[in-house]
Amino acid sequence: MQNLISLNNAIASYRTVFIVYFILLSYSELLFSNESVALDDTRSVSVMLPEGWQLIKMMSPPELPAKTINLVNGDYKILITFIGSKDGAPFKMNDDKMVALINKTSMQYVSGSVEGKITIHKIQGDSMRGVYSSFTDKKWVGKQPPPGEFKQVTSCVITVGKSILATVTYLSNDLEGEVFNEGLTILKNLRPQG
After folding, report:
1. What CA–CA distance (Å, rounded) separates 60 from 64?
2. How far is it, in rounded angstroms, from Cα 167 to Cα 176?
3. Contact indicator for 134, 109 with CB cutoff of 8 Å
4. What is the per-residue pLDDT across 37-47, written as a single tens digit (0 to 9) for each?
5. Chain-centre distance for alpha carbon 35
6. Is 90 exceeded by the pLDDT of residue 127?
7. How many Cα atoms sit within 13 Å of 36 on the Cβ side?
8. Which of 10, 17, 43, 102 has its CA 20 to 30 A from that of 60?
9. Beta bridge pairs of residue 69
10. pTM of this prediction exceeds 0.90
11. Domains of the chain (ranges plus CATH)?
């Protein structure tokens, strides 16, 4: 009898977990939209966008396995260029190579920044990893920039899966707020498809 009661409790527990899972799954569909960015006939990248974010696909040469997108939420803009490796071969991109790329691409921001140096931060999700560095423009300290200009820029280099490299420029007016962190979460949730 005790075994029958235990079995009945286990079944009820599994049912509860199953119901909660589908409720959360349905709720996430309301909060996020899933966009797909095709690089070529066999590869694409899944981009999960929280409420308030829009994806704008930019023109890219059709013969290249590369696509540029612009993600926008009010005064926050993320420009991402996805580059697929030739024939889907894995990129040999270790942390040292990504840091070297960030150092090279971010040097343009150092002299005009409050930070005055490149500080590397790691970012990682289930299907991506990378590095980034953020800079605050000296001329906007204590001031509100006009529309189209930004206090901060964050420069990233990431890999999505094994055969997609992405360069990211994230423009914002803060480096700690809820919307800024949503942008980082978008990057962490990038997933290869195909």
Report:
1. 8
2. 21
3. no
4. 988 888 899 99
5. 13
6. yes
7. 9
8. 102
9. 57, 80
10. no
11. 33-193 (3.40.1000)
